[in-house]
Amino acid sequence: MIYALNMVWNPAEGIDLGFFMLRFYSLSWVLAFGLGWYVMKPIFLRENETVESLDKLFVYTLVATMLGARLGHVIFYQSELFYEDPLSILLPISTKPSLHFTGFAGLASHGAAIGIIVTMFYIQRRVIKRSFFWILDRIVIPVSLGAIFIRLGNFMNSEIIGKPTSADSFMAMKFIKGEDYLGPLGEPAIKAQTNIQDAQQAFNAVATDPQFKTILDAFPYRYPAQLYEAIGYVFVFAILLFLYWKTEARNKAGYLLGIFLILLWSIRFVVEFFKDSQGGFEKYPIFNALSTGQWLSIPFVIIGCYLVFRAKADKTV
């Protein structure tokens, strides 16, 4: 349902294969790592590294990304889980209010970045006998590509939604599955108001059935912040790919990593102005001038600037 440049966003949960539902968010992770591998393969072959080393690198990177992203979310945004529901930190379940399956929800990109960087210390010593910066200068290329698909997965999941805006804002959307779960527009409330117990059918009815227009009108238009971020990351990926293949930037230790940190986290910082609050330590008065995501992005940008200036002075890998 489209209104001028605006729309009601109510996608299917995934691709129904009959025996299995392939969820779009899961598919986004598969694409992120699958395409990332193909992007890295010619880089490794060019620099006389084996495909076997690449396979090991990606396995370690996958584990580091998932663990780092999950722990980062809990530490930065939901620290109460350490004492309220510790099993949910690393398991796809929650025990509150009762035991139920949740999937691996709640992932923070800042935590993923830290996890990857720490893991590369191990990779550099045990798997790829190259310098620490050699590995990171190259791994950031597929990481930036993966970031595009993860944000598209967030978009398909109607999560990390933008702040409310006016209906005439460009690309403003109603994320009818993205509102507060326990709020007046959350899933339980929508089921009750439509008298339809299947969640997908209830949301479909709200989006398409004129008798539920009053409910639909109650949903605010929001910025599609996930798309803004994904589009920004396309440019990050393209710039890094160009710098590696068409310039001598790959021979400056830490330079590509620095460019990645500056560009990606600057985009994140800007897009945070359009995002709905994700919580975290921004709730404390001393930190409420910026969002949690913005505070966490600043150190990465500063480190990136240092690496770029350092790499210009030291042109050896």
What does this 3D model show about the protein?
By secondary structure, the protein is mainly alpha-helical. It has one domain. The chain contains 12 helices and 7 strands. The strands form 3 sheets. Strands 1-2-7 form a 3-stranded mixed β-sheet, with no helix packed on it. Strands 3-4 form a two-stranded antiparallel ribbon. Strand 3 (14-16) and strand 4 (21-23) form a beta hairpin. It is found in: Cell membrane. It is a multi-pass membrane protein.
Structural class determined from secondary elements: mainly alpha
Our count of domains comes out at 1
Low-confidence runs: none
Instruction: Kindly state the number of beta strands.
Output: 7
Mean pLDDT: 89
* Helical amount: 55-70%
C-alpha geometry: globular
Quote the beta fraction: 5-15%
Summed up, the helix count is: 12
Cα distance spanning the termini:
53 Å
SSE string, helices as H and strands as E: EEEEHHHHEEHHEHHHHHH
Strands in their spatial order, largest beta sheet:
1-2-7
Q: Main sheet?
A: 3 strands, mixed
Q: Report the radius of gyration as a whole number of Å.
A: 21 Å
